[in-house]
Structures are given as structure tokens and as C-alpha cells.
Amino acid sequence: MAQFEAPDFFEIDLLLSEEERLVRDTVRAWVGERYLPLVERAYREGYFPAQVIPELAELGVLGGNLDYGDFPRFGSVAYGLVLQELERGDSGLRSFVSVQGSLVMYPIWRYGTPAQKDRWLPALHAGRAVGCFGLTEPDHGSDPGGMQTRAVKDGEGYVLNGAKMWITNGTVADVAVVWAKLDGEIRGFLVEKGTPGFSAPEQRGKHSLRASVTSELIFQDVRLPADALLPDARGLGGPLACLNQARAGIAWGVVGAAMACYDEVRRYGLTRRQFGRPLASFQLYQAKLVDMLAEITKAQLLNLRLGRLKDEGRATPPQVSLAKRNACAMALEVARTARDMLGANGVADEYQTMRHMCNLESVKTYEGTHDIHTLILGRHITGIDAFGAAP
Amino acid sequence: MTTPPLKTLVCLKRVVDTETRVRVAPDGREIDLAGVQFIIAPYDEMAVERALQLREAAGDGRVTVLTVGPEAATKELRSALAMGADDALHLVCDGRLDAAQTAALIAEAVRDRDLDLVLCGKQATDDDDAAVGPLLAAHLGWPCVAFAHALDVEGRTAVVRRELDGESEVLEVALPAVVTAQKGLAEPRYPGLKGIMAAKKKPLESRRAEPPAARTERVALALPPARGALRTVEPTAEGLRGLLTALRDEKKVL
Description:
The structure holds two protein chains of two kinds.
Chain A lengths: L17 H28 L7 H7 L16 H14 L1 H21 L2 H12 L5 E4 L15 E5 L2 E12 L6 E8 L2 E8 L5 E2 L14 E11 L4 E2 L6 H35 L1 E2 L2 E2 L4 H29 L5 H25 L11 H13 L4 H13 L9
Parallel strand pairs in A: 1-4, 2-4
Antiparallel strand pairs in A: 2-3, 3-7, 4-5, 5-8, 6-7, 9-10
Helix pairs in contact in A: 1-3, 3-4, 3-6, 3-7, 4-5, 4-6, 6-7, 6-8, 6-9, 7-8, 8-9, 8-10
Chain B lengths: L5 E6 L2 E3 L21 E3 L1 H17 L2 E9 L4 H10 L3 E6 L6 H12 L6 E5 L10 H9 L3 E5 L1 E5 L2 E7 L4 E7 L2 E5 L11 H7 L4 E5 L28 H14 L4
Parallel strand pairs in B: 1-4, 1-6, 4-5, 5-12, 6-11, 7-11
Antiparallel strand pairs in B: 2-3, 8-9, 9-10
């Protein structure tokens, strides 16, 4: 495969530190050499290529931004660049890393006891353990506050009942961060694989994110010890703070997918000939490339600004919503257009574009659909909540 | 084999990424560097990796990386520090140097250092001189083994294997010595993010270097003649049949 040429039309590279560029280049090289040779078959057959987990750990990307132990502690822009490069490979790969870092390690780090941190963070960082995050339920997607999963106090511990759905890594996870109502208040619990009453069957039949594990989590009278509770998370703010981390990562990630599609279709247009001339010599083809490059460039700049604001502690949830919403819509549009431009070849898995396109349907939907982010921003602008409970 | 702790110097060069499509600058003598990506020359990177492996096998020792090159070559030194090298020396020098100039600068800078081993790539992938290692050894008065496929150290002896045309040769050489890396010596690691974050705290000494006068001068640089017209083969049974026919009847390679 030809070497990936990342578009950087506004020399955003010059706004990155030497360290950030080195992080980006390292992950970019790793994805090209170690992951891309695996993904086509994994996607076709529908599995996550788990052999990359130790390599991701070796790279230090699993929750490596957290201020804990001897973790690398890189900043938000470096972390964003990591996710961008991983999703240049596949959204499933980026999802694995986002879930492990932003949705499992982050809540343990932020809400957990020292014992919970010491038990899980080193193992999750080293890839010796995998985690998953259970918030969405079969009947509660965009309104997680309506969740039906319940925990009740039972002596020193708790008993958990309920079900979660669309859970990345669920079947392979050693620990699940599960959100449930305890006395009417949303709390977080660490549920270990193998706990009696807990099962995590894989959800099959996806047209999207096929190189990623998606599962149900089922809890039937699951008895949890007292130290399963994350003490410092109370209410919907607990899981939403995790999602805010992950959504920022998604904004970065999908730009990688869009760059992959743009690079593929730009090359294709230069070599594929119709009517005796390269496709890229046609005005319609050029106009599409220009639109793609313009949108990718805008999203790159937005992400960089978001990362810098995050590191200054000033990024707000509506800003994260805007970045996630814009980047996902942009990337899906780029991928759909690129698939068109590849003609019949675009449906073959020799080309990566349609894989990215199918993945992005999920990414636009999960962690707050496009429309939900629209409503969050609408509420921010007007002060009027357009999606609360019916009056 | 018990690897002793070694003080190793690895010389590396910042070169244009080997995947880059090279353009010649308007002056007809230099490469157009606009928009070009740079990397550690691949054989030099293998030398870095082997030096790190030997240090890890010994459990002790020191790996210093050195480059002669422009200010921007700090990036390649940081990259080697991120892989795990202990410290770096940057001889800052602009413009193109020939192998004799480079070797002279390195020799002057390291002559008084306490070193057991100097490693470098067999050649840099930009000018393909394959001369800096041997010239440096001559300056230092040390033995030199070039094109090493394997390198181990026992006591004060380096054991080097070389793949010749049809034979495999093993040489023993007394330290200190210069060894140049051939493909196969070591597979470079990815610098992990921890290494990258740690690299900025490692010592990197940078000083301007004045090279001796050049005795070679590049007067022209041109791209090779364009290859014949490329034909595209569609990934279909029919396309592949066409390819096989062409290979058999036109190119006579089947």
C-alpha cells in the first residue's frame, strides 16, 4: 500500500510541539505497519484483532494521559493526535482505546478509591486487563437518566439487576464500569468478569464497527462487594464527565478516518482513467476533493483549539458537543462522497473508504447522536431545554 | 554470552523519508525540501536499536546518539532519545557535507570521549556513501567492521556476523571498534509515548561545528529517466489473465 499522505493544508504541524509531532508520527507509523495489514480480514470476519492490545500498551496510549503512577502523562493535543491516527486505521481500533482510556480508566481515576485505582489502572494501562463502560440500555439511549438498572443495598454490599446494550469491549472485558440507580441516584460500580449473575453476550449482525466487539451486559441478582462502588460519582454528571472526555477524542478520531478516505480517493482519481483521462481531471471530481479538504482542514483547526482549551482547563461541554457533532457529520459526508467517487470499486474491501463510511454511521450515533448534540447546543444558545421530559 | 556494560556512541543522520517522492530544486544540485518529511536514516535506526538491546542485555551501560546536521535535526535526536538512548550530541552544521567532512567532525568531537563502541548505519539513505563509519575508524585508529548483520559483545571483543555473497562470515574484533549496521542487525522499536515524554528531560548538547573544506562538490542532481508507461491491471480474473499473458509474451519473464 502506498504511504499515507496526511493533508495539512494550513501547516497545522507548525502549531504542534516537537513532542506532539513525534507522538503523532509514531502512532501513524505503527498503524500503517502493524494494524492496517490486519484490519481488512478482521472487519470482513467480524472480530477485534486482540493481538494489538500488548502493542498499544507498549506504545503507552491506554489511558496514558492520566496523571497516575509512571504513566506518560501527555497532553490533550497529543492524546487527540493519537486517536486521530488510530482512527485513520479503523474506528473500531480508536473505540477500543477510547473506551479503555476515557470511559474505564478515567472514571476509576476520577471517582475511585486509592485501592480501586491501584488494582485497575496499572493493569488497564499495561493491557493486562480490558474494560468496558455500561450506560446505554435497550430502552434508554439518548435519555440515560431514565435507566432501569438498579442496585440495592444488601448488607455491606449491593445487588445489581438490569441490562446494558451497545457496549464496546463488553464480552472481552475483565472489568465493567456500570452505571445504575441506587436509592434513585445514579452511581458507578465496578463489576468483574465472572461475577455470578453477570454475563456479556456479543451482539452480532452489525453493518458497522465490525472490527470491534459490541455486547450486551446482563445483570441478574449480581452480588457486589462494598468496594465495587465508585465513591465519588453521584448523579448523571458522573457518566457525562466520562462521555465529555470520550467525545473530545471522537472529534479528533473521525478526522483521521476522513483523512484516510480523502487520501485514498485523491490517489484513485490520479490513476483511474475514464474517457481517456484521469478521473481527477474532471471538474466534478476536483470540486469534491476541494470540499473534502476544506472540511477536513476546518475540523483539524477546531480540534487543535479544543485540545489547547482542554489543557488550559477551559473547554466546556457545549464546545465538546460542537466539535463532536461537526467532526462526525463532516467525516461521514467525506466518506460517503469518497465512496461515490470510487465507483463500483468503492464497495470492495480492497478499498478502505466504505469500511470507514460504515463505521462512521455508528460514530455519528454513539456518545450523543448528532441530533442530541444539536439540542445540547440549542439549549446552550437559548437557555431553553428542548429535550427534557414531556410536559 | 554475557554482555558487558558498554559506552556506545551511535551516529545517526537526518534524511528525507525514503517514501518521499523526491523533486530536484531549481538550482539543479539539491533536493527540493518543501513539504518533505524527515526520518532517522533506516540503517542508523537499526544501529540505535542494537545499541539499546546490548545495554538492556548488560543491564547497564550508556548509549549516546550523535548527529551532524541542521538545527532541525534535533527532532531525530529526540526520536532516538525517545527510543531509549541516554544522551545526545548535536553538531550543528548547515548545508550538505560529504562523508570526509562528516567523519572529520565526528572524530574531532568524540576523540577524547571514553567509548567502547561506535555504531552507525552502513550508509545513509540519501547520499549512499557508505563511508562515514570506515573513515571515522581511520581517524580514531580503531578497527572497523562494515555491513554487520549481527553484533554481540563478550568481554573486550565484539563478535560480528556478515552475510557475504553466498557465505556467512563471523569476525572477532577488539574493542574499541566501529561497526556499521546492515539490514537484519535489529528491528527498531517504536518509541513509546512514555519514552517520548521522558526524552525532553534527557541531556542534549548542541554546539556549532565548523567542517573542514570540502574536497568534493556536487555539480548536478537529476532524477532518473521516467519509467515506461505504466499499465493498470484491474483486480479481476480477466485483468490477471492479461497480466500473465503480458509477462509471458512481452516481457518473457514467465
